[in-house]
Design goal:
alpha+beta, Jelly Rolls, seven-stranded antiparallel sheet, about 280 residues, 4 helices, Type 1 dockerin domain
Length: about 280
């Protein structure tokens, strides 16, 4: 049974390591059943900071059940002056039931079907509370001793410490933000007549552009928004766009109506308005 549990853990870890970013990871605990107590009288949180914009994917934490049954409330919280604050979003809290037959303490929560955003250079807290008075559990110690964690005893106030936190890991998908083009003053990723109208409205003083819009409206980068920028924008709009690259790949999906055919942009010419490129992982 223990060997099977270890195999399942390795499999789950490999799944969540593919094409995803580890934004926080203390590693597995050195000893199971030694750690911070979780009960109706004591909650705990561990702090982490992200370096880019991310969407949350998965949370792993090592908690062993000490009572006959146990239920937790697991949440991702904003930082409030150095202690756990409000929920990041209404989706960032989970009710989690502990398995009494889980000998490893490994617990997994997935958030791949949610949109929980984590902002760059912002501190956050992974917080765990007991959901009821019958729950007694231990959040196993991390192997490292320099983590920031916070404890709340008897629903009083959070007290921060530096040391062995609760062993855990957090995975996320980095957000890539496509840069805007010069002239796209309404930031819709399109260059069209609405951008021309917005620039004209700014020039005649009806609706002024803000500083960020001004930087995109100054197409010739001369520090002034005027008719020359409009002329350049019109030229961009009427200029023929680059053609899509042509390629062909064999459809290897037996369930597809195009199975065994060579497909590419030319095959679907005039039938689609955009192409979506995805990845497996």
């Amino acid at each position: 049974m223990k060997k099977l549990s270890i195999i399942l853990i390795l499999l789950q870890l490999s799944i969540f390591s593919q094409d995803r970013t580890t934004i926080y990871n203390t590693g597995s605990p050195p000893i199971i059943n030694e750690g911070h107590g979780i009960s109706i009288n004591q909650s705990m949180a561990t702090r982490f900071t992200v370096s880019n914009n991310y969407v949350l994917e998965a949370i792993v934490f090592y908690i062993s059940l000490q009572s006959e049954q146990g239920n937790l409330i697991v949440s991702i919280r904003e930082d409030n002056n150095g202690i756990p604050g409000e929920l990041v979003s209404e989706l960032s809290q989970w009710n989690h039931t502990l398995d009494p037959f889980n000998l490893t303490g490994y617990n997994l929560i997935t958030a791949t079907d949610l949109c929980i955003y984590l902002d760059s250079d912002s501190p956050y807290w992974l917080r765990i509370d007991a959901a009821d008075a019958n729950t007694q559990a231990v959040w196993s110690y991390s192997s490292g001793t320099l983590y920031t964690y916070s404890q709340n005893t008897n629903q009083s106030e959070w007290v921060n410490n530096i040391g062995q936190t609760g062993a855990s890991g957090i995975w996320a998908e980095q957000i890539y933000e496509n840069p805007y083009q010069k002239g796209d003053v309404n930031f819709d990723f399109l260059l069209n007549v609405t951008d021309i109208i917005a620039i004209i409205s700014h020039i005649i003083g009806n609706n002024l552009l803000n500083d960020e819009q001004l930087s995109y409206g100054d197409l010739n980068s001369d520090g002034v928004i005027n008719v020359s920028d409009i002329v350049q924008l019109v030229n961009h709009i009427i200029q023929a766009q680059d053609q899509n690259p042509n390629f062909s790949l064999r459809d290897i999906n037996p369930a597809s109506e195009f199975y065994n055919l060579d497909l590419g942009p030319s095959f679907f010419n005039g039938q689609v308005s955009c192409y979506y490129f995805a990845k497996q992982g």
